[in-house]
Amino acid sequence: MPPALITLPLITLILSQLFYAFWPYRQRTYPAVLLATLAGMALGQIWLVLGLPALGLGEADFLPGALFAAALQPLAGRLPIRWGS
User: Fold this and answer.
1) Looking at residue 85, what is its pLDDT?
2) What is the rounded average pLDDT of the residues 53-73?
3) Of 79, 81, 4, which Cα lies nearest the Cα of 41?
């Protein structure tokens, strides 16, 4: 099992919690923040596959993924994700 399969979801969950708690936009739901963070981390992994320079944690590409996730956070409030009725 590649170590990135363990570190990447853990980093994604930690970053999404930090973005939800400290990002100044309050009109967002946590699933939208988690989805935007997940998309940003996936873009960071694509960055790694393309062979562009990056800072990683093991096989997980951390710095570009975190930057992409931060860039996508303003869009999290526009995602139509609703829980319940």
Assistant:
1) 45
2) 79
3) 4
